[in-house]
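Weekly sync notes, structure subgroup
Attendees: PM, AL, DS (notes)

Item 1: joint prediction request from the bench team. They want all two components modeled as one assembly rather than separately. Inputs as received:
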Amino acid sequence: MTTMNDRLVIAGREFQSRLWVGTGKYKDFAETKKAIDASGADVVTVAVRRVNITDRTKENLLDYLDPKKYIILPNTAGCYTVEDAVRYARLARAAGVSDLVKLEVLGDEKTLFPDTAGLIEAAKILIKEGFIVLPYTNDDPIVAKKLVDIGCPAVMPLAAPIGSGLGIRNPYNLKIIMETVKVPIIVDAGVGTASDAALAMEYGADAVLMNTAIAGAQDPIAMAEAMKYAVWAGRLAYKAGRIPRKLYATASSPIEGML
Amino acid sequence: MNIHVNGESRGTGEGQTVAGLLRELDIRTDRVAVELNLEILDRNDFETRGLRDGDRVEILSFIGGGGY
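Output from the run, pasted for the record:
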């Protein structure tokens, strides 16, 4: 099995890469582009904000990220209410070219944990309007199941708080989510370094989405490349099937033939 | 007449359209969403949709961001 013929499919769309990346916190658009290219990601998530009308010299992100080459995944980052999240999703659709949205309804400024009740409500509204809703959710298997039941074609549980770099705080919950829902699972937020991404994939995640772990690294472009290999390695290890953990040693060399 | 664009007060000519305003601001129409008095407009209506005194226009586009 190679990574080349192991494609991720969500709502009938095929994705080349199992590493998805955010576009925030980079020094400039040139660095953003270089990091994304080094990561090999074909899905890039973007936020929706007011255009700067007083300083038109500011460049546009899409001048660097050709929507024909990358799948632009707008998000509702920064929305704390159902109304705001729905409004931003609609604006994103009006500004873009697709019905895809990474839906965030945040509950609290300190943790940026999802408001899962609001998330489900907003998802219902948007799904009814034809959106393909990819919900940023907690590592709660019951909420994940509810999101799938109302029509989300994938779920995006967090590994840890956004930007925290803590890695996977609750691997057992993530494993339960992977067992209980039959849609792709994209681990979103909280990854700190390559091993976190590899671990998420080894657990059986279908993809990993990250931003700060790459953009905030001392060398973002090198970290982007590290993440590409980590996600590949984790995916291959998951497909290969790891050996069981045992308390005691098992020799790898035969006894037979010894003096 | 006076309108509000992205929260700022601004004068523009009588009979100005949404597309005309975007041209005036040097903004490409293919990468933005426009909300006029809380109504999200279809891009195909930019040319024909006229603005009136006191209108509130929001012009948004994609920026760098992952999660908030």
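Discussion: Residues 80 and 109 of chain A are 9 Å apart (CA to CA).
Action: AL to compare against the crosslinking data before next sync.
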